[in-house]
Amino acid sequence: MPLTPAIEEPQIHESAQGPRVTPAASRNAQTPRPVPGPRPAAAPRPGRPGPARPAPPAQRAAQATPGPVPAAPTAPSVSAAVPQIQLIPASADGALDAAEEAVDLLLDTGRAPGDILVLTTGDPHPWAAHELSFGEPAYWALHDAGDDVFYADAAQVKRAAGRPVVVFAANGGPVDTVAGSLPVALTRAGALLIVCGDPQQINSVLGAGV
Fold first, then answer.
1. Are 169 and 118 in contact (CB under 8 A)?
2. Of the given ranges (2-11, 40-49, 101-110), which has the lowest mean pLDDT?
3. What is residue 206's predicted lDDT score, i.e. its pLDDT?
4. For residue 150, what are the β-bridge partners?
5. Is the full-model pTM beyond 0.85?
6. Which of 46, 73, 170, 190 could form a disulfide with 164 if both were Cys (CB 3.0 to 4.6 A apart)?
7. How far apart, in Å, are the Cα atoms of 68 and each of 71, 87, 106?
8. Helices vs. strands in the chain: H and E counts, helices first
9. Residues 6+ apart with CB under 8 A from 73
């Protein structure tokens, strides 16, 4: 008589094995669900402004369509007889800061540091003051190397060699400094002259068309 329940036990285990197969199939059905999740998340990345920042140098060489204003006139004005002039209104106290922002924008749009010359009419740029502490020969040797942005006193513009872009900061100094050095700075700019200063003063020197 005790043998009867022992025969029924295998039937219970067989029925228990059936439902174990069913979740395995449901797991396979769930695997494709997370796959489409990352795909739409990756799609908007090329459109975000963040990843586009390191790309401008490559885009500028391949597409030649930079968005910011200073880079746009650079290419067509290289072959022009007269460089393009851009005026950034600024007070004497804010002219150097405006010039620094212009330099940052130029570098962000793919300009090489050696393409940029910055001239100041008042207090020298901190970089120039630091480099001049090592002596003028070492200072002008950096200018001759031409591999970095160079900052100089506008009164010494005649000594500076021409570069594709000249940034002129009218940050004070003698009254006649702007009138005497700005026209020379224009001749040093091969493609673009950016002037940061009082618009009335700049226009009186370069003309009302600036």
1. yes
2. 40-49
3. 85
4. 117
5. no
6. 190
7. 6, 15, 9
8. 9, 5
9. 84, 191, 192
Which candidate, 181, 161, 158, places its Cα nearest to that of 169?
181
- Of the pLDDT bands very low, low, confident and very high (cuts 50, 70, 90), residue 44 is very low
Token pair recorded at residue 148: 């970095």
Separation CA 5–CA 49 (nearest Å): 74
Contact 122, 92 (CB under 8 A): yes
Give every CB contact of residue 4 below 8 A, 6+ residues apart in sequence.
none
Separation of alpha carbons 63 and 36, rounded Å: 32
> What is the structure's pLDDT at 175?
81
Structure tokens at 137: 């020969």
Beta carbons within 10 angstroms of residue 77's beta carbon:
19
Which of 161, 53, 156 minimizes the C-alpha distance to 115? 161
Name residue 196's beta-bridge partners: 88, 169
Cα distance between residue 196 and residue 94, in whole Å? 9
Nearest one of 204, 194, 207 to 95, comparing CA atoms: 194
Helices (H), 50-125: 56-62, 74-77, 95-108
**Is the distance from CB of 175 to CB of 202 less than 8 angstroms?**
no
Rounded distance between C-alpha atoms, residue 124 and residue 121, angstroms: 8
The structure tokens listed for 157 are 């513009």
Q: What type of residue sits at position 197?
A: G
Name the token pair of 96.
């150097």
Question: Quick one: DSSP state of residue 2?
Answer: T
For 25: left if phi > 0, alpha if psi spans -120 to 50, otherwise beta; the answer is alpha
